Structures are given as structure tokens and as C-alpha cells.
């Protein structure tokens, strides 16, 4: 079975865009690949988060991903900082990563521009740490969005460089796992083409019916169709796209017909959409709450994940140390 590695940022919450987008694919690939999913808490140290906030944000993220379908029996789900082998591999790879190539990454340049007062070495070597995450489990595949492609390319370069320098095929070259047409793009309700955290238009899995309904009822619309069977403008198509994700085909067809004969009332459409989003989110939210309360379960998940991840990591590190010449 081939191996997939994916890191999850340690802060933030899951919204419908994540849920119907990448996450659904993560849940699906658990059946076909040996998956490692981890919370990238070491990476988050580049911005110096408050120590007191860590525990709660790791717990939250973990509860949300588990509630949404990541399965600790099928995948290895762990916390990055629980696996010290990653940091050791990071040291070895740092010796092969050149300042120039790291300075050229778009994410580095972007962060330097935004936070010129905190350009630390960890920020520069962020892609090296990410390469360690990936190569640690000798991954074949990494699910990446556009913003991470350059980082994956560095992981590929470092894998090749290591193998060449030490003349030993320790690391397979990790490839981008692209979900293609299986990656649903979820629109925002503010007329924008994408639901996202930075877009500020997310409907979150932790939110209750009231909060969700309020957001949906505020969705941007237009003044309505004037001719039968006309094409839907983007703001309206966005509502229909969301509806098609959470409602039955009958419901979508009902509103489609109302659109086509110009009798649609957006208030009704929004009410239906709100009710169906709530219906979809409610059981997930209840699972998030239950998992979050269950410290024992969360501890069991992370302990089991840590054990499995360290076993795989130790095996790789043994090969890497031997290649470098450390083993006696
Ligand atoms: N850099 C990724 C992000 O910002 C998170 C990440 C860290 C990651 N290590 C990884 C993703 C390894 C894939 C593989 O989203």
C-alpha cells in the first residue's frame, strides 16, 4: 500500500468549504492508502503563539477532523511535536537546503513582507521541516493545494539530493496527490467564488443552527430573473451550488423550476438552504462537542497515533543515519 502524508494547521476551524472540499477526499483515501495525518504544531511556532493556547487549539482541530471522518483505526493521526524523529531528520535535511532556494519561495517572501520584524530561521526553513514530515514516512503522495506546491517541490529536491549525496535510495520522491474533479469548490454566500477563512465568509462546522441560519439569510442575491430560463448570475448560482451539496435533488429541481419560470422567492430558497445546511452540520457539531469533552478518547487517539508514527519514523531515521554514516 502506498503512503500519503498530510499536515494540518494547528489553529482555525473547519468550514463547509473544507468539509465538502479536501476533507471528503481525505476521508475517502483512508481506504486506499496508508495515511499519516498530523497537526503541524511545530510549524506554528514560527509566529510565536502563546503557550497557554496550544492545548485547546490542538484539541479543537483534532475533535473537528475526527468528527468529520478521519478514522484513527484506518489512519495514523498524530501531533507533530510528539514525534522527535521529525526534528532530527530536519537537522539532516537542513544541511542540504540552500539559503538561496529557500529565500526564493513565494510563502517566505510573502511572510517577510507581512512581518518584517519576525524573519526567523524557522520561517526560512519552513519547507525543510515540511520535507521532514513527508520524507519521515517515506511518503509517495502528498495532497497539496496550489499554495503548497512549491513546498512539495522542495521536499522532492531534498529527497533526490539526499539519495544522490549518500548514494542510497532512502527516500522515494513524493508526488502531488491531486483530487481533480473530486475536489468540490464550495462558494461563499457573499458573492465570492470561494468559501474560506481568509475570505471571512465561512460557515463553520462548530456553529449552531441559529448562527448558520443568520449567515445564510444574509446571503447576497440580485433583483431576480426577468426572463424565463435565463442563465443564473454568479451570486445565485452560488446558492444553488451550496443547495446541491446539502439538499435532495428534488429540492434543487424545485427551485430550479421556480427560477426558470421567474417565480422564485429568494427568501424561500435561503430558508430551505439554511435548514438543509443545519441538518447536515448538526450531527457533525454534536460529534465535535462529544469528542472535545472526551479527554480520555482524545488522549487515546494521540497516544496511538504517536506510537504508530514513531515506529515508522524510527525505521526511516535508522536508514538515514546509516546513509549519513552515523551508525556503528
Ligand atoms: N504547510 C502546510 C499548510 O500550511 C501544512 C503542512 C506541514 C503539511 N507539513 C506538511 C502539508 C506536510 C503536507 C505535508 O497547510
Order of helices and strands: EHEHHEHHHHHEHEHHHHH
Q: Order of strands across the biggest sheet?
A: 1-2-3
At CATH's second level, what is the architecture of the largest domain?
Answer: 3-Layer(aba) Sandwich
Identify the CATH class of the largest domain.
Answer: Alpha Beta
- Considering DSSP H and I runs of 4 or more, what fraction of the residues is helical? 55-70%
Tally of helical segments = 14
Distance between the termini: 32 Å
Model regions low in confidence, pLDDT < 50 over at least 5 residues? none
What would you give as the CATH superfamily of the largest domain?
A: HUPs
Reported by name, the CATH topology of the largest domain is Rossmann fold
| Largest pleated sheet | 3 strands, parallel
What shape does the CA trace take? elongated
Structural class: mainly alpha
Strand content: 5-15%
Ligand inventory: tryptophan
Overall structural domain count:
2
Mean pLDDT metric: 96
Number of strands: 5
